[in-house]
Amino acid sequence: MQKNNRVMGLDVGSKTVGVAVSDLLGWTAQGIETISINEDKEEYGFDRLKELVETYDVERFVVGLPKNMDGSIGPRAELSIEYGEKLEELFSLPVTYLDERLTTMQVNRMLIEGNTSRKKRKKVVDKLAAVIILQNYLDQQARL
Fold it and tell me: Which CATH number fits domain 6-143: 1.10.10.60, 3.30.420.140, 3.40.50.300, 6.10.140.1580?
């Protein structure tokens, strides 16, 4: 019987990385956790990511690319690309970048409409952003 592999979606920030994985069929994205990182100290959470990659048998990463509203690549997007390049190097897995310009705003709007407190929103926004990034990727793949 063939083993199914999953796709991992990442919302990379300067202090946290939101993590989501696909189901075994590649139809839906589920939020897993938010990993604390520290870009300034070059602490990127790769040890924890390695555990998650092994646990979920991940075959590909999808990294959110926070482009500027005009579609250009700014400093934050450059850092996301650098993170993705480190992932490729460490895990020898392909990385796909997905435009995530409005993802965080979309998540915040959903949480506000759901009357989620500001404190709770702060804890889940990155994980939910990773879910949206990954779900958008999965939906694109389903249309191919």
Answer: 3.30.420.140
